[in-house]
Specification:
Blueprint: H1 6-18, E1 23-27, H2 46-49, H3 51-60, E2 61-67, E3 70-75
Antiparallel strand pairs: 1-3, 2-3
Helix pairs in contact: 1-3
């Protein structure tokens, strides 16, 4: 949740815009987020934690390819 504030998410979105990223790699395993020892289930994933980033990505990128739990997104 370190980056979860609205302001920090908007800064991150600006960085994606400014470097004109053509592809993004998202997904993977998010088990034990927050370093919760002894817990073997997924806590809040990035889609839940970073709603502004998720919205921006959904509006500007589409799935290009999938590899296991990862998705390669391509700018629309």
């Amino acid at each position: 949740m370190n980056m979860g504030s609205k302001n920090n998410q908007l800064i991150f979105i600006d960085q994606i815009k400014n470097n004109k990223s053509k592809y993004l790699l998202v997904g993977g395993s998010y088990q034990n987020i927050g370093n919760m020892k002894g817990r073997n289930n997924t806590e809040l994933g990035p889609k839940d934690r970073f709603v502004y980033i998720e919205k921006y990505i959904n509006e500007n990128f589409e799935i290009y390819d999938k590899i296991d739990k990862w998705e390669i997104l391509k700018r629309k």
